[in-house]
Amino acid sequence: MGVLVFGAVIVMAMVTRVASHDYGDALTKSILFFEGQRSGKLPSTQRMTWRKDSGLQDGFQIGKKKPTSVVSGQLVGASPSGRPQLGTSRTRSTVSVFQRLERKDPIEFNNCRGDTLVTDRGGVQFFSKKVERHQIACDFENDWSETQIRQPEFVRQVGEGLFYTLVDLVGGYYDAGDNVKFNFPMAFSTTMLAWSVLDFGNFMGPDLPHALEAIQWATDYFLKATSIPGFVFVQVGDPYGDHNCWERPEDMDTPRIPYAASKQFPGSEVSAEIAAALAASSMVFRSRNPAYSARLLKRATMVFEFADANRGSYNDTLGPWVCPFYCDFSGYEDELMWGAAWLYRATKEPKYWSYVEQNISDLEKNVAKHTARVGYGGGSFAEFGWDTKNAGINILVSKLLLSNSTSDAGPFIPNADKFVCSVLPESPTVSVSYSPGGLLFKPGGSNLQHTTALSFLLLAYARYLNQSNREIHCGNVVATPARLIQLARRQVDYILGTNPLNMSYMVGYGNKFPRKIHHRGSSLPSIDRYPARINCQGGTPYFQSNDPNPNQLTGAVVGGPDNGDSYSDSRADFVHSEPTTYINAPLVGLLAYFRSYPPL
Ligand SMILES: [Ca+2]
């Protein structure tokens, strides 16, 4: 009898294992993906070995180095002649929104040592008449940790917001299937990786060290991007030049223009998001590497102060260089609050709590104002992504409030509850949609970014609610923490293959997954296989090929199926077939939790 019961238990356990996904395998792969997106000098520990060093001159040289002794100079920051077109579609495009000035001849200037430097041709196509010779100094080791930020004399502005400098911007991540380093979504992805480790790091097992590496790969870069007082580098690479080529990152010869926010040309959203990433990451490293953690936190406070004191959107100061690529449609106020909320969590300093408390009432108003300009509206309670942080702010602050049982909770917990009620399919106030197969959908491209980000918030909030024995009422519908977790798991399972097509949307997970993802490095032969250079147009046949990508970008999660659960696996269909760091970053936390809590 005892043997029979034991046998039955084994059979049941086997059935459960077969029905469940291998979340541990998916977790490993979801983190491995970030190695495929690395820019810079790859370490000896690199596991995705078909990728090689790239962008090693970022910040030092605009384009391909000329075969002379002349060193290339730098162009940093730009104020476009035209206003950004906020009505532009949110999908990414290669259509220029303003007239560029073609300039083929080099521009000369002097560096601090008196050397004459010259830019490569084409590196400054948009300021042909405004450039003048000037002197720059060499003090780039200065750190924001100095008590007083002095006006930097070593980065001088000329013309329409044009700066020259030499600064190390090697490292960081390519955001998606191209080779531009967009710091705004990179910072959001970093914040979400850090939140994943803070809440779910205990469930990551042997993958935790890799998750920490993934975070540090970004924070090392952000320390460089904020190393000059009064400047925050927001992007490296001319997006038009980059998107017009289909090149491996290792072969890049498009203009690697660094763009910066400054006092005169603010970029509060990207600066505040970098501050959030640094603050959240400082908590991750607090016990593991106290000195590094302290450095991150100190920089976070300085960068936040810069973002708040010099308010403005990089949409307006960098215009067509950031829009329509990563245009901050929702305004910068949400990033300032998000940054302050993370700084409060990291420092416990009352001034950050006051900032959050005092500005929360304006947040919804501000977002409504900005979103009205671009034609998408509605409540912002269900908005969470690289553009809009509202739902994330409310959930993050609710954790602090629920654990401290503070008397004056403000609107945060009601707002967080509204978020849940806007996502739950059975809620009378649901504002997202679901495909027939059960996948969460929101308007815009790259849908799985919404699915993973909102599912992360559901899971995080469910655990905070559990700790305080709360449940949510959406009209007459009761939402328990268990229901929130169930919905989050349903979304993760869909991504991993529990869907009408029975296909995984994570490359390398399961047997059926996207083979022709929109990703330059993955779709071109690797350097190992084809060492000769493939130039800008040389990649076109690979882009147009019907063959599967030769290099597997393991762990990459693509934009996903359409709202009818169909997927065409087309390289050209970037809305559905392109992976991004901000799809994966929240998924890391989700997979870690489900790895430890498989379905009962
Ligand atoms: Ca925003």
From TrEMBL:
Residues 23-62, 167-591 form the Glycoside hydrolase family domain. It comes from the Eukaryota. Residues 1-20 form the signal peptide. Keywords: Carbohydrate metabolism, Cellulose degradation, Glycosidase, Hydrolase, Polysaccharide degradation, Signal. One of its GO terms (molecular function) is cellulase activity. The active site is at H518, D569, E578. Its EC number is 3.2.1.4. GO terms for biological process: cellulose catabolic process. It catalyses: Endohydrolysis of (1->4)-beta-D-glucosidic linkages in cellulose, lichenin and cereal beta-D-glucans. InterPro entries: 6-hairpin_glycosidase_sf, 6hp_glycosidase-like_sf, Glyco_hydro_9, Glyco_hydro_9_Asp/Glu_AS, Glyco_hydro_9_His_AS. Belongs to the glycosyl hydrolase 9 (cellulase E) family. This is Endoglucanase. It comes from Salix brachista.
